[in-house]
Amino acid sequence: MMNGKEYIESLRKYKPTVYFMGKKIESVADSPILAPHVNAAAMTYELAHDPKYEDVMTAKSHLTGEKINRFTHIHQSTEDLVKKVRMMRLLGRKTGSCFQRCVGLDALCALYITTYDIDQKYGTDYHERFKEYLIYVQKNDLMAAGAMTDVKGDRSLRPHQQADPDMYVRVVERREDGIVVRGAKAHITGAVNSHEIIALPTRAMGEKDKDYAVAFAVPVDAEGVVMFFGRQTNDMRRLDGDIDCGNAKYGTVGGEALIVFNDVFVPWERVFMCGEYDFASELVETFATYHRQNYGGCKVGVADVLIGASAAIAEYNGVEKASHIVDKLTEMVHLAETCWCCSLACSYEGFKTPSGAYMPNLLLANVTKLNITRFPYEWSRLAQDIVGGIVATTPSELDYKNPETRELIEKYLKGKADVPTEHRIRMIRLIENLSIGAELPESMHGAGSPAAQKIMIARRANLDLKKEEAKRVAGILPDEDYQRVRGEEKKE
Question: Is 492 a catalytic site residue?
Answer without folding.
Answer: no
